[in-house]
Specification:
241 residues, two-stranded antiparallel ribbon, 61% helix
Amino acid sequence: MLVAGASLAACAASPDVSVSPDGVYDPYERQNRKVHAFNRGLDRAIVRPAAIGYSTILPDEIEDSVGHFAKNLGQPSVVVNSVLQGDFRGAGISTVRFLTNSVLGIGGLFDVATDFDVPQHDTDFGETLYVWGVGEGAYLELPVLGPSTQRNTAGKVVDLFTNPLSYTLESPEAYYGTIAGVASGLGTRGRFSDTVDSILYESADSYAQARLIYLQNRRFELGDGEAATEIDPFALDTEGF
């Protein structure tokens, strides 16, 4: 799976001369905009109401615990990707965080590791491909999942198989991480509803706005030299560019 993912990303993310001056390579813009319209409709009809209801009903403490639980279950995947990147310090940090929060944080419901000054560490197979030298490829907007690139899309597929817990936990425990991840996503959508709404429903071109935010922030996370600064979506002019 790792070899297949790397090969797929390498083929899909090969350099192309049609990159625009602002660093955006979007040869599938027509199709992407159709997916974006679908995602906006889905958000308006289902995701946004569910997220607002979720955040309104549940206390912040419970929302935080669900988010901690989902993040903790993802730490073994972070360990695997850190090792694949040669980042053994990061792998050690994630291992310590996982063990600490699993034992002392009641399965990860509480972020005890942060209280013990164990730093946060996060990565994925998309970043692993970046470290391996695979190019970013074209910008893509995925149904339901939203903004991505060809490299990160391949990474998302491989990450379905990089978490050792998925091979050790039996049903229904094996689905706890997925359920918690969806709930955590709803909580985040609900908490930042005003900001997300301003991007999706108040900007002159929500597709271009979301694309810019995603690409710049992802490149910043990866330490890509093309992204000098991280974009703060809270500071954006949501009336367009």
